[in-house]
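Readers of this paper often ask what the protein records in our data store actually look like. An entry from our holdings is shown next, in its original layout:
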Amino acid sequence: RPIEEYATGHIPGSLSVELSRSFGVWVGWLVEFEKPLALVLSPSQDAGEALRQLTRIGYDDIRGMVNSLDGWPGELEKIGVAGVSDFADAVERGEQILDTRAPSEWNGGTIPGSLLVYVPDVLGVGDMIDPDRPVWVVCESGFRASIAASLLATRGYRTVVLSGAGVDDVQRRMTEDG
């Protein structure tokens, strides 16, 4: 589901990989191969496309699929979503910032003080992140940041993801305010 939907309520322990052309790639990279899957989609999303991408990479143990969590019997978890202004304010306050872009992208500039960790390495952050403070997660568009934020959330971290924008947008906003 889109990050805004995932953020407002998701099954505890679930991973957010929005359905896109690279959905199967990210699932294949981050989810243990033999692990059975259940998909949570928005009603407007193409379940057939999700299944095609997963079966192409050998993930064929799909145990269930739902397009609404309205009847979910347990508590749903939430993560924070921020726009550019709120994210820039968090940077200025000295919040923990996690840049999850690829290492080659960091050469183009980073947010000062941010921790640079590519999405597949996020669960190895260990002592680099204070578990008692929120982690503000950014990439270039929000897609990878939402994956990273959900990975951290599965480990109990409180996360806030920049949605629909990226590092360049935050830097531009900070320069305008500067």
